[in-house]
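Section 5.1 Outputs to date
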Amino acid sequence: MDGNFSLLGPIDILQLLSKRQHAPPGRVEQGEVFLSGGQPVHASYKGSSGDDAFFQILRLKEGSFEFVSGETTSEKTLDGSLENYLLHALGYLESHAEVGPFDSALLDPGADMAQAKDLPRQASLLMKLLQKPATALELALASGLEAEEVFQHLGQLADRKLVRISPRTPQPVKLKVELREEAGSAALVDARIYSGWRSQYGPFQQVEVRLANQSRRINVEPVARAGVFLYLSAEALLFHNLHVGQEVLVWPAL
């Protein structure tokens, strides 16, 4: 069994699995969760394990998952009930700011700067770049941070009332051309960007890609965690006369 989080999130999926006495382990990119008797016993995610890893997985908004039957674990890093973990995660999601790829961020002129004292280095860097409104994607390009890091730290800054987040209508974005490892004629664009465009403009199969005064139409597919990159195969790069590292303007071809 596998799929992605476009229809059901991790919380919904685990609620369903908990009703099974022998639920298989769930895997996401760089992470996994084991249940025993409907209760969580072990979680790992991006090098961490236990409660922190489990909460990070529960908060995922995108990405793919799979369940593999027949696997067990001897590790015991989780002690609470699944119900308590899920309630904690829901409370966190309801009380914390969520930043989308098109939302605009700006330093709050009335902010209490004492709240910035123990910020991570990445969050402090973003504050230095926010002298004028910018989106998470623009900040990722300017800072060199991964887009997911920028989403996370902007949410933290918003929670501390250091920045203001203003929703914006999905619009063209500046992306950096990158090589797609597998063959294919379609470009790969971040699933959050794709979803925002689709919700605003309806279904589309191609994007307009503009470089200087030239524009080309390219078939497109969504992929998790692409961030500020537009992935193209070597054949597509050659066909469309594009090069790795170029910054291009991209929007749905309607």
